[in-house]
């Protein structure tokens, strides 16, 4: 029986209180415990000599156990092997606060502690929301809540002095709540969320002081829209958009650099003066930067193909049919859903030019044999003694992919020179990005063709035609029995009417010419029976 674990979510302030409790500010070696050196006892007057003798009769070791000095207490929190050393990585002020709790513990109170913190880094604590209690941290300037489950940010719950807000790897899809009353942020980190549009929330009207913006690994697919919004940020100097579908567009970096002339860093890479000069004017030709991605496929040769059995041992095979083996490389790639997409030449940001479309989705043959070999896209595909497996190749796979196939070459000893290149374009950038995060299959395919002489082909065709005709005869639909019965009944009804007329004619004839009843004339009765029998058959 499977154990279902439920995730217990908490607020940001609850997680902060748990980390604050781990500092043990009121426990040894911090706080006002009896382990501290009692300064007030020094001020007491010594009244009797017995008191002096009793004081010096205690050894230094025994005295130190009860009265630890401040320096020794602080040393216990620094030694790596010390059981009193705690983790201070969640705040730059955590270690200083603990030192303060050792040196001057009488000054600690709730307000002092909350105002002491200027930075918090709370990661992977199942935080669902930023609650209003975070406003108690009045001096907080940096808040990092990465790898949690935050879906929306209430801006009126953020401290007013906040300058850095890092929300990497959460579940944020909309920025509407964040922009209701935003604090004067200098850095906003929204990477690894599920944001597919910024609407009008990432603009200079909401973030006039923003210097750095991280929106990496989201679902942004419209390059012109997002860059148009970012152009309104007057102080933006650092921008991270890598991992978004728009980063797959050729010319993405050049177009972004030319549109945002004040940027100093793009995707964690410094922007040089040469880049700015090289891409100058590209923003005015925005129509040449399409929202689609281009990919080059290049296969030069295949080697290490095993020798076919009919070549290795021809005596074990009949003269006919002749076996012809062709080989090609097949890539599983994303299927193009939309139509009318232009195909551009694969390029870096150094060159932006159009090229003739050369995309080809080859159709699958029925009699193909596949050999699955993991390989990388490059100048050669190596087959390390592939094992040929009989498996039909399907053109359209259920998961929305198709097959891109190289040109075919017949088997030959040594290397098989293919010299094939192709460029394809895809405009569904979000599906393409998701596809590229998975494994892409590369297959070495063997096509087997059986060749016969003309006379054998006629026999094979004749035999196939006979078998087809037999199948057609078997597949003929039988008439409906109910309709057939209706037809027979109608036919018998007409026969019955005609026979009555004949009998009446004969009876009238016999009565006229013999003047006797019909039943008394046996001879004519036999004639009538004979006529009826003949008529029925």
From TrEMBL:
<dbReference type="InterPro" id="IPR032675">
    <property type="entry name" value="LRR_dom_sf"/>
</dbReference>
<keyword id="KW-0472">Membrane</keyword>
<keyword id="KW-0433">Leucine-rich repeat</keyword>
<feature type="region of interest" description="Disordered">
    <location>
        <begin position="459"/>
        <end position="484"/>
    </location>
</feature>
<feature type="transmembrane region" description="Helical">
    <location>
        <begin position="520"/>
        <end position="536"/>
    </location>
</feature>
<feature type="compositionally biased region" description="Basic and acidic residues">
    <location>
        <begin position="467"/>
        <end position="484"/>
    </location>
</feature>
<feature type="transmembrane region" description="Helical">
    <location>
        <begin position="497"/>
        <end position="514"/>
    </location>
</feature>
<keyword id="KW-0812">Transmembrane</keyword>
<feature type="region of interest" description="Disordered">
    <location>
        <begin position="354"/>
        <end position="380"/>
    </location>
</feature>
<dbReference type="InterPro" id="IPR001611">
    <property type="entry name" value="Leu-rich_rpt"/>
</dbReference>
<protein>
    <submittedName>
        <fullName>DgyrCDS3029</fullName>
    </submittedName>
</protein>
<keyword id="KW-1133">Transmembrane helix</keyword>
<keyword id="KW-0677">Repeat</keyword>
<dbReference type="GO" id="GO:0005737">
    <property type="term" value="C:cytoplasm"/>
</dbReference>
């Amino acid at each position: 029986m499977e154990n279902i674990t439920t995730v217990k979510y908490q607020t940001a302030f609850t997680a902060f209180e748990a980390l604050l409790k781990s500092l043990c500010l009121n426990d040894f070696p911090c706080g006002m415990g009896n382990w501290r050196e009692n300064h007030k006892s020094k001020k007491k007057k010594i009244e009797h000599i017995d008191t002096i003798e009793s004081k010096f009769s205690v050894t230094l070791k025994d005295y130190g156990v009860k009265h630890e000095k401040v320096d020794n207490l602080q040393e216990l929190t620094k030694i790596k092997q010390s059981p009193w050393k705690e983790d201070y990585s969640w705040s730059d002020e955590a270690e200083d606060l603990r030192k303060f709790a050792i040196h001057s513990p009488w000054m600690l109170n709730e307000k002092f502690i909350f105002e002491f913190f200027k930075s918090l880094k709370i990661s992977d604590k199942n935080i669902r929301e930023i609650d209003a209690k975070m406003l108690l941290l009045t001096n907080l300037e940096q808040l990092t809540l990465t790898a949690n489950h935050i879906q929306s940010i209430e801006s009126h719950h953020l401290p007013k002095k906040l300058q850095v807000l890092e929300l990497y790897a959460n579940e944020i899809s909309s920025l509407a709540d964040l922009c209701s009353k935003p604090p004067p942020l200098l850095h906003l980190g929204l990477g690894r969320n599920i944001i597919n549009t910024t609407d009008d929330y990432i603009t200079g009207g909401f973030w006039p002081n923003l210097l750095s913006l991280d929106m990496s690994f989201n679902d942004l697919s419209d390059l012109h829209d997002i860059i148009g919004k970012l152009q309104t940020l007057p102080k933006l100097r650092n921008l991270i958009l890598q991992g978004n579908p728009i980063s797959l567009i050729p010319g993405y970096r050049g177009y972004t650099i030319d549109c945002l002339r004040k940027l100093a860093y793009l995707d964690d890479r410094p922007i040089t003066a040469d880049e700015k000069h090289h891409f100058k004017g590209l923003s005015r030709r925005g129509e040449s930067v399409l929202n689609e991605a281009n990919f080059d496929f290049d296969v030069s040769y295949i080697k290490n193909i095993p020798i076919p059995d009919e070549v290795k041992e021809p005596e074990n095979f009949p003269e006919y049919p002749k076996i012809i083996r062709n080989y090609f490389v097949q890539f599983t790639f994303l299927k193009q859903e939309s139509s009318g997409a232009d195909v551009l030449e694969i390029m870096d940001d150094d060159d932006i030019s159009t090229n003739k479309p050369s995309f080809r989705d080859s159709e699958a043959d029925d009699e193909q044999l596949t050999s699955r070999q993991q390989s990388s896209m490059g100048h050669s595909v190596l087959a390390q003694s592939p094992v040929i497996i009989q498996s039909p190749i399907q053109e359209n796979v259920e998961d929305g992919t198709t097959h891109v196939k190289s040109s075919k070459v017949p088997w030959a000893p040594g290397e098989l020179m293919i010299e094939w290149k192709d460029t394809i374009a895809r405009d569904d950038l979000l599906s393409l990005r998701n596809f590229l995060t998975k494994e892409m299959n590369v297959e070495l395919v063997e096509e087997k063709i059986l060749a016969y002489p003309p006379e054998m082909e006629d026999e094979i065709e004749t035999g196939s035609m006979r078998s087809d005709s037999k199948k057609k005869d078997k597949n003929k639909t039988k008439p409906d029995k109910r309709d057939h019965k209706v037809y027979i009944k109608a036919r018998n009804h007409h026969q019955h009417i005609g026979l009555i007329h004949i009998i009446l004619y004969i009876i009238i004839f016999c009565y006229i010419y013999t003047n006797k009843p019909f039943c008394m004339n046996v001879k004519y009765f036999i004639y009538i029976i004979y006529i009826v029998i003949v008529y029925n058959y």
